[in-house]
Amino acid sequence: MAEPLARWLTLYDECERTYNARDHPAVDKAFAALYAHDHTLTARDRMAARIARWRRDSPDEPLPDERDWWGHCLCRTCAAARLAQVGSLAPWQRQQKTLTTQRKKEHIHVWNG
Predict the structure, then answer these.
(1) Model pLDDT for residues 56-89, shown as the tens digit of each residue
(2) Exposed, middle or buried: residue 13 (CB in 10 Å: 0-12, 13-18, 19+)?
(3) Which end of the chain is more exposed for a tag (fewer CB within 10 A), N or C?
(4) Cα(64)–Cα(62) distance, integer angstroms
(5) Domain count for the chain
(6) HEC profile for the chain?
(7) Rounded distance between C-alpha atoms, residue 99 and residue 107, angstroms
(8) What is the pLDDT at residue 98?
(9) Distance of CA 8 to the CA centre of its chain
């Protein structure tokens, strides 16, 4: 296993260990370390790390169908950026919305005029 993936699994295990021990200050530190490392990985490496963890911890279960997000970075910066994009429109959608609004206004002006 590649070093970045092995490191991710080690950090994940530390998060799980401190969480189960209810060691709250250590949990925060462990998650911060995991997310910082997660940010350095490529989407492909993040996906590989999560698949490796699943196969290690749940060898008799198939991979879940909903795993598209497994390639996403979970650090606060990337998570905030994804949330900010959820409600935003693509440029062509903004243009279409503007044109539709303009047509409605023109139609109302002509009809009332």
Answers:
(1) 999 999 998 888 889 999 888 888 888 777 666 6
(2) middle
(3) C
(4) 6
(5) 1
(6) CCHHHHHHHHHHHHHHHHHHCCCHHHHHHHHHHHHHHHHHCCHHHHHHHHHHHHHHHCCCCCCCCCCHHHHCCCCHHHHHHHHHHHCCCCHHHHHHHHHHHHHHHHHHHHHHC
(7) 12
(8) 78
(9) 16
